[in-house]
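the two lines:
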Amino acid sequence: MTEGEHGTRAAPGADEPPAARGPRERMVRAAAELIQSQGVSGTGLRAVVARAEAPRGSLQHYFPGGKDQLVSEALRSMGALAGRGVGRVLAGLEQPSPAALFAGIVDRWRQAFLADGFDAGCPLVAAASDVAAASDRLRAVIADAFTLWGEPLTEALVAAGVDAPRAEQLATVLIAALEGAIVLARVHRDVGPLDAVVAELTPLLEVAG
Amino acid sequence: MTEGEHGTRAAPGADEPPAARGPRERMVRAAAELIQSQGVSGTGLRAVVARAEAPRGSLQHYFPGGKDQLVSEALRSMGALAGRGVGRVLAGLEQPSPAALFAGIVDRWRQAFLADGFDAGCPLVAAASDVAAASDRLRAVIADAFTLWGEPLTEALVAAGVDAPRAEQLATVLIAALEGAIVLARVHRDVGPLDAVVAELTPLLEVAG
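prediction for all of em together
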């Protein structure tokens, strides 16, 4: 496989203060960022340690469970980050509605792509693609991480007026559409697919609130 | 990373006669199937040759461009297969409509998951996740492969009554939603996300025709 520059960035929602991070937290974050651009199989432990500027040997110290443990923590942390991102978008809406909520969530990815380029995608999709079939334990971790995103989205949809029984199904569809659009945006190096899902789903969401 | 059984299957639409395949074609298909469950980085050339039951050394013979060439052909062939699948679904509809077309396309994945399990996903999403950032050449191949699927879908939507200017955008959204739902279905080992996108998008599609 051709080697090249792996530009990475934190996912939208990564607006947490970086200052107080210790080596352990930096390694989790570095793993997540590398997975975003090159998947789990392509993410080497040496690269994680180097990116995190962590002391040699610290990986063994902080993650006795090895790569599985590090990857699991990275994926869960990114799911939780996405979940907090939903809360931030909801809190920023003057008039909460399902359409405005979805547009706001998609816009975080749109802005990130425009600012940082298209190298980094969703680490949960990357992990689902290359390790979910081989490791049932990691598959369950990815499922948990999606739940850490999906549950706050379901709650936010209810807060924006969607009937509770429907909100969970709608959250699944919005996450699916966004994830697929992120893949297409990366592949085409164009935010058009993100704009397309917002344009097509807005009328649906306008009658869902 | 934990090693395990890599169950793989051909993508929906893979209902082509397997009989007359030579070693070259078998290697392309084997590469696609392995990418479906473990990504490009996780797919080794030895495993491809073994799965294809191809003679040793045949890889070098048929694919002088190495793994990049093999992966490129695998991804393009799967994009084309998905495109032909759209045509088959359209041809099978008594009364073509955008909603019936989408439900039929999703149902091919649904049936495949129920029959073969959840190990194999879309090889284009897998490749986008682990090599698109590192190789601009492979990224362009993935984009082409998505186009081999998206263009027939756009044409089928027009045939089902969608205005031409909107059909392309709608095709993008349907592919995005399906791809995201495939990821979620694999992760949860449940076809629920596929049912969810059909349920939520059907009302939208019913007024698009």
